[in-house]
Design goal:
The protein has about 425 residues and is an alpha/beta fold. The protein is built from 9 helices and 21 strands.
Length: about 425
């Protein structure tokens, strides 16, 4: 047994804050395995990487790259961002507020533990409150910052997976925003459609009204932060409501596509307004899609949908595509578009270029920007969160490819988050 020990700075960081992790007291040149374990709301995440101690018997994650290719290069947060789910189960009740996550870090030499430490990563500081919302048809989760307010309001919209990204709410609340993470479809959401099919834009407007009626929430303008299909919903909502003063759209499309079925069924438009279907581009699967998907299912390979969306655009009539374009130029506030060039679900970088060009062509009076990360995919998390390259299962046993790499997706998360905060601040500053 050595006299190895960890030095951690800070030991109780904000979740998006960089942590300096340094191990000392091992033999020079020793092979040291560092492992991390973090229980999350939905299960237990773990990661590991092997390092070679330097001549002083030190492993410093900020200076030393792993020797087993666990991730690229020296990275102080490498162990944290490469965490992945190993045991999936609900570890918190739906109405339970999770304000921090504890990471246990262990150093092993020749398989034997030589040092241990913990890092408590704070999602929401003291004073932030969270509550489940099921009120007048609005379903979701509401998070309020510390203090009496009123605070600027933000609507958070998940993508095709249906569940709002739960860490975003407390992180935005810790920045001073009152956040409604809205549930707008899914079999577990009473009164909402089971699938992304025919969802009324009026439901999102009702959510804005709900925010407006909170004494702790400042009057409009409000912000919207959305991912994928939720980004599309946010752009459509903002284009039709002057109450929206800023939009942050992660991996949106530039046109409305056909909805997403619950399983293998068929659906129509994802959105309606006033009882009328919002025009959409229908899918063009091609003859090889079903056999290809079955082959992927048998081999347990990820299914890439990007060719479907590209083919659908190419084969649709010009007037169909024109009618389905999202009128982003009508948004009365700044617009941040976030994408990765290796998006395997749909070509979000191309779509963001089209949206940005449309804003330029209409001399949009507010700040707008397309922030693209080379090599990143569809899934861009918050900084230093567990990073993945898949989107989730389309059916049990068949996962959708998101694209990118763990390293590129992590770079995208780190660079996009401060921009997102800056755009919200710019659009919601009274």
């Amino acid at each position: 047994m050595t006299d190895a020990s960890f030095d951690v700075t800070p030991r109780r960081p904000a979740f998006t804050e960089r942590v300096e992790l340094r191990l000392s007291g091992v033999d020079p040149g020793a092979r040291v395995e560092l492992s991390a374990r973090m229980p999350d709301r939905s299960g237990v995440l773990e990661s590991s990487a092997t390092f070679e101690a330097d001549g002083d018997g030190v492993v410093d994650l900020a200076e030393h790259a792993p020797v087993d290719d666990a991730y690229d290069g020296a990275d102080a947060m490498g162990l944290f961002r490469t965490l992945s789910m190993t045991t999936e189960r609900d570890l918190a009740a739906p109405d339970e507020a999770v304000t921090s996550l504890v990471v246990d870090v262990t150093a092993r030499v020749d398989g034997e533990p030589v040092a241990e430490t913990t890092v408590e990563r704070v999602l929401a500081p003291e004073g932030v409150t969270a509550s489940v919302v099921d009120d007048r048809g609005v379903v979701g989760r509401f998070l309020e910052p510390a203090g009496d307010g009123p605070h600027p309001g933000v609507l958070v919209l998940a993508g095709g997976g249906g569940d709002p990204p739960w860490k975003v709410g407390p992180l935005l609340a810790s920045e001073g925003y009152a956040v409604l993470a809205l549930s707008y479809f899914g079999p577990e959401v009473d009164g909402r459609p089971d699938a992304l099919d025919g969802i009324r834009i009026e439901y999102f407007e009702r959510a804005l009204d709900w925010l407006s009626n909170r004494s702790s929430v400042r009057a409009a303008p409000f912000g919207v932060v959305g991912w994928s299909r939720g980004a599309n919903a946010g752009l459509l909502l903002a284009a039709q409501n002057a109450e929206i003063g800023a939009v942050v759209a992660y991996a949106p499309s530039s046109v409305v596509f056909q909805g997403i079925p619950d399983g293998w069924g068929s659906v129509g438009t994802p959105w309606t307004r006033g009882g009328v279907d919002v025009p959409f581009v229908p899918y063009s699967f091609g003859k090889r899609f079903v056999p290809g998907a079955l082959g992927r299912f048998v081999k347990r390979d990820e299914l890439e949908l990007r060719p479907i969306y590209e083919r659908s655009i190419e084969q649709a009539d010009d007037d169909v595509v024109a009618d389905a374009r999202i009128p982003v130029e009508r948004v009365a506030g700044p617009v941040l578009l976030v994408s990765g060039t290796d998006d395997a679900l749909w070509p979000s970088s191309r779509f963001c270029d089209e949206l940005d060009a449309r804003l330029d062509a209409h001399d949009h009076a507010y700040a707008h920007e397309h922030h693209s990360t080379d090599g990143a995919g569809h899934v861009v998390p918050v900084p230093y969160d567990a990073t993945r390259t898949d989107v989730g299962d389309i059916v049990p046993g068949l996962s959708l490819a998101g694209g990118g790499s763990v390293d590129a997706n992590a770079r995208a998360a780190r660079s996009a988050w401060p921009l997102a905060l800056a755009y919200l601040d710019r659009g919601l500053d009274p």
